[in-house]
Amino acid sequence: MRAATPMRIAQIAPLLESVPPQAYGGTERVVSYLTEALVELGHDVTLFASGDSTTRARLVPVVERSLRLDPSQPDWLARTTMMLDQVFASADEFDVMHFHVDFLHYPLVRRCATPSLTTMHGRLDLPDLAPLHRHFREQPLVSISNAQRKPLARSRWVATVHNGLPQDQYRFHAAPADYFAFVGRISPEKRVDRAIEIARATGTRLRIAAKVDRVDQEYFERDIEPLLNHPLVEFIGEIDESVKNEFIGQARAVLFPIDWPEPFGMVMIEALACGTPVVAYRCGSVTEVIEHGVTGFIVGDQSQAIEAARDIGRIDRGACRRAFERRFTAHRMAQQYVEVYQALSGARATGDDEAADEADQRA
Amino acid sequence: MRAATPMRIAQIAPLLESVPPQAYGGTERVVSYLTEALVELGHDVTLFASGDSTTRARLVPVVERSLRLDPSQPDWLARTTMMLDQVFASADEFDVMHFHVDFLHYPLVRRCATPSLTTMHGRLDLPDLAPLHRHFREQPLVSISNAQRKPLARSRWVATVHNGLPQDQYRFHAAPADYFAFVGRISPEKRVDRAIEIARATGTRLRIAAKVDRVDQEYFERDIEPLLNHPLVEFIGEIDESVKNEFIGQARAVLFPIDWPEPFGMVMIEALACGTPVVAYRCGSVTEVIEHGVTGFIVGDQSQAIEAARDIGRIDRGACRRAFERRFTAHRMAQQYVEVYQALSGARATGDDEAADEADQRA
């Protein structure tokens, strides 16, 4: 399990949440899983993150507290500028620097000998990202799904590395209770209304564990709240990690009827880790995560979704868990990233980019 | 008038407005005056700014249109990141790089051999600026008044360079009409209410040429609008540069009853350029710009302000214009900046900072 040749790796996290996050913070959570798995593999990992982070790596606490929780409301841009300076001041102590902080570091990367890569954690169809990435076209980027790349198809993608979860974070549940689960956010692109329709059409209970962001409050009150007043529908609100395991594991299926180009969709692999199959709309990363007929069903409309929900008993829950263990553990994620790190630092050592291109082929 | 040794100078402007600005944009205006005056002095000047800028320098149009006017609402941070990369890519073509864009460039400056300086154009008492400037404490900074430095007293201030205006921008008005002028913004720290009280107490007309920012709309409606309904008070709204000359020049005095640490206060030197004296509260830069009893009066409360307004005829309007020509032209501003540029590039050539310190002493 220990690395043959330990690498000196810097992980550069966003400062808004701690690593792992205390509240919601998708990127910080993945950075935490990756960091701990790299330590587990025997690498020498330095994590640049807020001081309230918890890690077995060497923590460089670039701010005392995560910015979202700091009552003095520090300026994100000023603090991130300071952090980047600190990272690049110690660049020669690392074999590779792995950024999870959008794009502010690109001009510094161009002027630094240590290889680096940037994982894109969000959607990439914002209009300014295209000219930005044309300008910085040599920056090595990692996508969290192949589908995510589409708006920046001509960037230098060195790999797709699907997100992963610690193997024991979620426990296998062989025998579910009799409900469907919807987990995540209430927002127009997540289409909880479709989930409710599926539940009603199949006569199956739907339990909804989801937060409502302020920006979605009006949508929630206008479009969703009226639908919740139904004997089959239960709205629980936001749940924390500790109860998620039971909530998802007890479900007959997780419904994922999205209507947007989901970059990854952590809830799908949380479901698989529990042995819970997924009924998902064919959008974004879905076809890369779910194997149709094996770990759930991929559907294109509501009639297919309702049929899939009725047939969900045909999916072997053990197969779901096995797919998770094979493809979506943090260990697998870390191993894949190490291949990318080695390719990039090898490319630097030999002075060409072929090794990086090779890593790309393998991904 | 031509420089003995022309310098290769980069001016890096904000992208929100063009240089000069079409609408309000205090920084962009000063950058324009400085750039044109440096060209006039015979220097080789490159201006990094939006493509709708107008200059006799070499323009590098880093975006097509100033961001505030671009209907596609480009992301300021992405565009500024791209601009900074472009600036530093050509750093070795310059003897000095002069930044007017806050702090995003500091980490790049640290890793660049070409000397640079940053002019602080705004207030510096925002809480995040202190830790930021402790971190980047070696960055050469220029203040636009000595008073402005106070919150960052321990930074590396290499000079104070007061803002300047082109010598012929405003025309001398020997004989004013019978009104006081208030020019600028309606906001709590500008205290137009004090100006109105001064006008009423002295029985003199007050003409107010000021814009109301959205953030100040409620203050305007609640606190100021009721005061405007008085036969001595006339509210004109925002005026453009073309009518400012007559508006200020015809005034017996400009009233500047501020209640905040004004970093500079362009309207004071616009007044002096017209030969119009200023009645100003002792705040921020005021004591550095106005000579009490010579170019106006500096006051501490309303009774002093009213007395000063009554006595304003004792101020020689010719002395105001002469003070402007001696101390506040763009030509003088450019000459002073050239001294700073020479000290910084000399310090680099000789490998020490004494030359920079010398420039500081002279300022």
Question: What does this molecule look like?
Answer:
By secondary structure, the first copy, chain A, is an alpha/beta fold. Chain A has 13 helices and 13 strands. Chain A has a seven-stranded parallel β-sheet with strand order 3-2-1-4-5-6-7, with helices on both faces. A six-stranded parallel β-sheet of chain A has the order 10-9-8-11-12-13, sandwiched between helices. The longest helix of chain A is centred in the last third of the chain and has 21 residues, at 330-350. The two termini of chain A are 21 Å apart. The A-B interface holds A 72, 74-75, 77-79, 81-82, 84-85, 88, 103-104, 106-108, 110-112, 126-129, 131-132, 135-136 and B 72, 74-75, 77-79, 81-82, 84-85, 88, 103-104, 106-108, 110-112, 126-129, 131-132, 135-136.
Can you tag this structure with a few keywords?
homodimer; 363 residues; alpha/beta; 7-stranded parallel β-sheet; 6-stranded parallel β-sheet; 37% helix; 17% strand; disordered C terminus
Overview in brief:
The structure is a homodimer of 363-residue chains. Chain A is an alpha/beta fold and 363 residues long.
Which range does the strand content of chain A fall in? 15-25%
N-to-C order of helices and strands of chain A? EHEEHEHEHEEEHEHEHEHEHEHHHH
Mean pLDDT of chain A: 93
Largest interface: A-B, 27 and 27 residues
Distance between the first and last residues' Cα of chain A: 21 Å
Name the poorly predicted regions of chain A: 351-363
Biggest sheet details of chain A: 7 strands, parallel
Strand order of the largest sheet of chain A: 3-2-1-4-5-6-7
Number of helices of chain A: 13
What's the quaternary structure here? homodimer
The percent range for helix content of chain A is 25-40%
Radius of gyration of chain A: 21 Å
Q: What class, by secondary structure content of chain A?
A: alpha/beta
DSSP strand tally of chain A: 13
Shape of chain A: globular
